[in-house]
Design a protein that fits this description.
heterodimer; A: mainly alpha; 15 helices; flat; disordered C terminus; B: mainly alpha; 14 helices; about 0% strand
Amino acid sequence: MTATTPADARLVTEVYRDSQYARGRRALVWMWDRPIARALTRALITVFLVTTLNFVLIRLMPGNAIDNYIAQIMNEQLLSYEDAAQQASGLFNLDLKKPIHEQYLTFLGDLVRGNLGHSMLSQGTTVASIIAAYLPWTLFTVGLGLLLSFSVGTFLGLIAAYRRNSPFDHIVSTFGSILSAIPNYITALVLVVILGTQLRLLPIAQMRGSSSPGIAPGFNLEYIADILFHAALPVAVYFLATVGHWLLSMKSATLATLEEDYVTAARARGLSDGRISTAYVGRNAVLPLVSQLAITAGLVVGGAFFIEVILVYPGIGLRLFKSIEQRDYTVMQGIVLLLTISVIVANIVADVLYARLDPRIGRAGGANG
Amino acid sequence: MSVAALARPTMRARISGPLASTLDFLRLLARKPLGLIGLIGVVFFVVLAFIVPFFVPYQDFVDVTAIYQPPSLAHPLGTDSSGRDVWNQIIHGGRDILTVGLIAGFFSTLIAVTFGSIAAVVGGKVDALISGAADFWLTIPHIPIIVLLGSILKFNSIFVIAGFLALLAWAGLLRQVRAQVLSLKERDYVEAARSLDLGLFHIIFKEILPNMRSYIVIHFILAMTSAIYGVAGLTILGLIPLSGQNWGLMLNFAYVRGALYFKDSLWYILSPVLAIVLFQLSLVWLVSALEDIFNPRLRSSG
């Protein structure tokens, strides 16, 4: 159908506009313009690449985990290669008789269904159940530590910016830069050595673990006080390791905001200082930090590794360390995959928060930091 | 008075080139007390780790009668669990850590600068590919990945470790280099080089990079701090099979043998802790002073 008159032409375009194809295309374009769609696509690609890396490391590298494991149980249990391979297939979730690309596809398919295989050492325990038992403690301590450091850090940073070059500013900023330069595992070591061993202020040995033996989990004061007692050291380390960063970032963000025209305008309109500092300066300065908070949360979950090992706190990091020591490759790859996903989720949250909170960022926004 | 005033410009004119810019730089740095302390700290540790060991021989002298001694004239930082001198171990324990930091910092900066500038100058699909790779790399938790790799690949030399740490650290810097080059590439002198058809290599290495020197130095130092963070942490937990002497290994011994919970071991533990912290702090203070000097408006990156 070709358009001969203007009326025909309009008819053609209207028909086309409402055709299913055009509507689908518009929907796709609309979705693609959402920051969330792009972030999700990126996330899927990242997860895919990391799982592939995991598969390659465990299955294809020379001297890889599976070959080692087969050789080991052949020696220990005097099995034939077939029997040993059979046992390994069960553990690693792979059918070793199939060609490698089919093994890979099955591996991916199982992952999608949340099947991470079994632990190589404690037979019969699924990797997913191990993760479910340890991850909450990491999320709890990291979350609490970051929440505290973020609120205290941004508050002190705001005051430091308002009292620029005062003694308060100098002291707080210097402490902030010192704290942010100290590696978090050093903070953990020093807390143990000074507060626990030297001054004997803290019963370090009793504080290990996530809760005291004999206390039943439940929503009661005793249990909550007990888990807080055990979480105190890791939370303190996360607090000390990140508070300097929030403080310095908030200070410089506030200083930049104070020079903005709308702050000058608000002053000229005679608004009270208290209102300006909260509704105008504080709110705008803290915006970019909120999305940073999400990214930091992801990174700290990954960095919890050092802290939990040193403080013997049974979170996902300590479990990863154990699985490395015991060469429990299935648990190892499960945890690394999970940590990757948590960083990715944190990044997506950051992207969405950033686009939501800052009215100046349009749809195309969503940069990190 | 007038003689001095007359003499000054000629003095300035005679000293030119790198020496003059170094002097100018030191003059600017002198106005930032923390930055100056940082520079002194960095120089101190570099001399301590690379030069002092030539003059102070390594002592492997075990003396079981003098375990965990407090500081004294003979042992400025006390002794360890076998009666060896801690100060001697600190002197000989910096080289590996600093070397890893320097090599990893150098290579991650090199990767980031090369590919970041190529992405920005070439643009289009190349840019999308490189930026995409950097975004991907940024969302991987680095410490767990290097731990996983370490358990499978067996790191046994500091150069391999430095290489892996460099491979992990380039992505954030790459994005910043790319952004910086994108703004530089609109400048007139780059346009001129482009219209003269001087080629990609010439544009990147002769026109753009020289104008980013300060920026590159800052990021080299930052990459160094993160590499040192990684290598020290992994050695403390015993996840890198390093041998010999280094600050991380000292803490690893303290950690493995339970010296953390032993009251007399304070000096043995605090010495490597202070060495690592003071070196990191010096680098950070130096960097923040450099940022102030080179680009007063760039302070926000904190």
